[in-house]
Amino acid sequence: MNTIQKVTCFITHAIIYKHQAIKGEDMREAILAFIKEQYPDFSVNDYISRAAMDKIRREYLVRLMTLEDADITQTEQEVIDAITTNKILTEDIEPIIDQKLTLGQRYADKIAEFGGSWIFIISFGSFLLFWILLNVWILGSKRFDPFPFILLNLILSCLAAIQAPIIMMSQNRLEQKDRLRSENDYKVNLKAELEIKLLHEKMDHLSLHQNKILFEVQQMQIEYLNDILDEIKKKN
Known about the structure:
This protein has helices spanning 29-38, 50-68, 74-85, 93-99, 103-115, 118-138, 150-235, and strands at residues 6-8, 15-17, 21-23, 47-49.
């Protein structure tokens, strides 16, 4: 009865099934050289478990990234750490930003939101119309702000002077949100690109391993055919 062959992982020294391991001769030369840098005694006849191999591939991607760009930014370092620990970078930044808001920033957002709405336009237009009608027809000789409505102009000027910096504060907050969103998108895209490289590495290994198995199967078929031909020749 055939038993499933077991091997020892060179890195973790754990006993694993052979189909759960990768042999040194089946690895790409770049990965093999990278492993030998850390484990000089590793040879093409040794085995590494798939879990340990995944970790090595991630470390190899980090090496490639640091070689391509000597000046690693904080954002790229976060991506490197996420790849090493297999951490998910996608996150909702809105709650994070809103937790750090001061009372003045909250009021600035609400005032800017109200000032850019149709409710403000209609209500303020109605106020101007009522002011004009009150000082032209309704009050008559008792009007407190006759034409050209100097008091009204003063109120409008003060409102504009106060509203402009409040709107700028809100716009700065929106710009900060957009900057954080862009930074988060960049981290996610960069991690996705590196993960795709890792996936290509795995696919290359699978293709090489499958081709080797197919070649062995073909060799066995040829041997069987040769045995059959020899039997036929002996009978004839």
